[in-house]
Amino acid sequence: MDSYPPFQKMYSTLFQDQHKLNHEPVVQELELPLIDLDQLKTGGRRREDCLRAIGKASSEWGFFQVVNHGISSDLLKRMRSEQAKVFGLPFEKKANEKLIDFSTNTYRWGAPSATSLQQLSWSEAFHIPLTKCSESKIQHNTL
Question: Which segments constitute the Non-haem dioxygenase N-terminal domain (predicted)?
Fold first, then answer.
């Protein structure tokens, strides 16, 4: 079974419309903002610059990457390994089963409201509210 969501099947009309327009699809690759959390420990201007960068990234992107966050490289490595296992599962299993200690609707892919290829997000993610993390029985040592 394929582990990838059925993007082409789901969005076939968008691809057909693009073909009718005789345009090449727009593909844009951008780098996410990178925030160095170590700067928050400093005082003065560097701290303020970091806070402004977080605000800007949040308002323009909605998310950002962080470095110097204090999470051990070993734990990150184990998390990436588990991530690869989950996202490598067959699509039907990810879409229909409760894979982690949260509701079945945490798995999302694509862009349901897309009306053109420019709006289409080729993404796949588990959306887990932070409040659920603190309520969960998952222990960080079990990763």
Answer: 32-129
Q: Give domain limits for the chain.
A: 32-70, 85-127
Query: Residue 14 class from Cβ within 10 Å (0-12 exposed, 13-18 middle, 19+ buried)?
Result: buried
Nearest CA-CA partner of 104 in 122, 126, 83 = 126
What is the Cα–Cα distance from 31 to 54, expressed in whole angstroms? 15
Q: How far apart are CA 135 and CA 10, in angstroms?
A: 34
The one-digit pLDDT tens for each residue of the chain (143 residues) are 677 667 677 667 766 665 554 555 555 667 889 999 999 999 899 999 999 999 999 999 888 999 999 988 998 888 888 888 888 888 788 777 776 666 666 777 777 666 766 666 667 777 666 665 555 544 444 44
104: tokens are 């079945």
Please, what's the b/e burial string for 89-128 (b: 16 or more CB within 10 A of its CB; e: otherwise)? eebeebbeeebbebeeebbebbbeeeeebeebeeebeeee
